[in-house]
Amino acid sequence: MKNILITLHKFLIALMSCLIVLFSSHATADTAMDARLLASQCAQCHGTTGNTLGDFDSIVGDSFSELYDELMEMKAEEKNEVMHKQIQGYTNDQIWLIADYYANDTTNNNGEEKVDDEDEEDEEDEEDEEDEDEDEDDEEDD
Amino acid sequence: MNNFNRRDFIKLMGISAASVATPSLLKAATGNVAPRVVVVGSGFAGSTVAKYLRLWSGNMIDVIVIDPKTSHVSCVMSNLVVNGKLNMSDITFDHSVLSDNYGVQFIKGMVTGVGPDAEGGKVVSYNTGPGTTIKQKKCDYVVLAPGIAMDEIPGWDQNIAPHAWIAGEQTTLLKSQLEAIPAGGTVVMTVPKAPYRCPPGPYERACVIADIMKRKGGGRVVVLDMNSKIIVEEHMFSTAFSDIYADIVEYIPNVIVERVDGLTIKTTTDSYTADVLNVIPTHKAGKIITELGYASINESWADVNPISYELKSDKGIFVIGDSSGTNQPKSGHMANSQAKVCADAIIRMIANQPIDDLQRLSNLTTNSACYSPITFNTATWLTAGFAYDQDLEKMVAIKKSLGQAEMHSIDHYQDMFSWSQNLFENSFM
Q: Which of A82, B81, B94, B356 is exposed most, by the fewest CB atoms within 10 A?
């Protein structure tokens, strides 16, 4: 069961990647420019390239799913913190565009090196396995 | 001037060439002349718009910034210079950085006029010092970002009673006056009538000064507010005044200032003589806005369309930052935010693309955030997000995005430096 779930999870990640590619390549110029403008509104606190100074999280090199999931999680949490408040100002579609922009676009990145996401994806898989264990426990409780 | 190739520009924009009609406003349509934008002012608004016009056009737009100085001193964090935590050099940004990094051109000069030229563009007049010959720069668009101008108060001499609300020499003056004041001394300050630059700023200033006095061993800080109450973070600041600075701060709302003589300020009900008098008067758009007749909102602020920040009255002229009259706060962070919307609009206009299509309008956002020191090692924060409302045709605060810190803390104080570092980088570097 666990293996099937992991395979399903990997399939979903692959599917999502395909959708992102499709989305990006079919995006109109307008969408690209809308995304660029939206994403630039993060730069006040995260720097022009997303390579953030000081203690705030840097967003250069994060994959689409890392950025999108984290932003959506923050939006759902509704904590009284600056970033949690800021993200309430964006629709889910806008969050998608912003995450896609920072994960893929290089216009503002001035040639910044992107880090390899592979290792981080492996970590995600492990975390998900733990989540699934918990799910199974829940089922037993039921 | 760089060689301008419209096809390259369009390609860079990622816009299908077929969708682009021959633009009428640009000589670029027939010749290899780059479109040109002249920016007036080099603060958060002016510097950011100049940088992003270059960055987003792949350096294909000529950008010339005219400013009387060769560097900009940030008001953001300037209260930390007042209390000695930072040096002036920490908040001073030389124009050469944007020039080196993005090819923004700077002219040291004072703008005296903006008008149409014979070819359908604009012409900006300026001098390079008092009494010098007027020079002119032709361009396609003008962005005015001159910040604020102070209202006069009868008798007031800002060299005796500094405002320190435009950072620079005034900041240094207030700092040295506060250094010289003995324990037990009296400081009187005013809070201008809203809207003014940096909503929490005057209350932050009161806390910074009260903290200085407290650490000297005590003193009195009289806060004369021209508003009916503390206009932002009311709980935070009123608690700071009544709790942390209970023996120091005296807060008086609904003040109407009549005149200032030396270190004495006279209101309609009282007169106060101080050892240090920090007069922050009401203010309005930068001088050039009034001179050009653009201060149409309450004779103080420029009336702009926030989808581009173009003046409602004059095509091709844009006003961003504190000088514009929108219902967004006047802050460095917000000025930076507006500048990007303006740069995006100008680039689309040069490419003859619409700026009012449904998709763009539904994705227009701006935001503001700021941190305010409450004591020498704690701070608070305030934040707001705005989105364009297509029915109201203005930027509207998004309720769920409005927030403020519950407590001042050392963590927020540290975050203040991360925030300002990135804001400075994004605007001036």
A: B356
Amino acid letter, residue A73: E
B344 with A33: Cβ contact below 8 A? yes
pLDDT > 90 fraction of chain A, expressed in percent and rounded: 48
Tell if the pTM clears 0.80, that is, is over it.
yes
Beta bridge partners of B150: B283
**How far does the CA of residue B386 sit from the closest CA of chain A (Å)?**
7
Q: Residue length, chain A?
A: 142
In chain B, where are the structural domains located? 20-149+283-355, 154-278
Q: Which two tokens stand for residue A47?
A: 């720097």
Q: Do A45 and B415 touch (CB under 8 A)?
A: no
Query: Is A90 in CB contact (< 8 Å) with chain B?
Result: yes
Fold match between B20-149+283-355 and B154-278? yes
Class of domain B154-278: alpha beta
Fold assignment, B20-149+283-355 = FAD/NAD(P)-binding domain (3.50.50)
Query: Is B385 in contact with A31 (Cβ distance < 8 A)?
Result: no
| pLDDT at residue B8 in the model | 73
| Chain A, chain B: beta-carbon pairs less than 8 Å apart | 120
Nearest CA distance, B381 vs chain A (angstrom): 8
Ranked by mean pLDDT, the top range of A5-19, B15-29, B326-340 is B326-340
How far apart (Å, rounded) are the C-alpha atoms in residues B4 and B6? 6
Mean pLDDT, residues B172-199 taken together: 98
Q: Which of B333, B340, B369 sits opposite A40 (nearest CB)?
A: B340
* Mean pLDDT rounded to a whole number for chain B: 94
A56 and B15 in contact by Cβ < 8 A? no
C-beta neighbour count of B372 within 10 angstroms: 30
The rounded percent of chain B whose pLDDT value lies above 90 is 91
Residue B138's nearest CA partner among B290, B292, B27 is: B27
pLDDT confidence of residue A31: 87
User: CB of A88 within 8 Å of any CB in chain B?
Assistant: yes
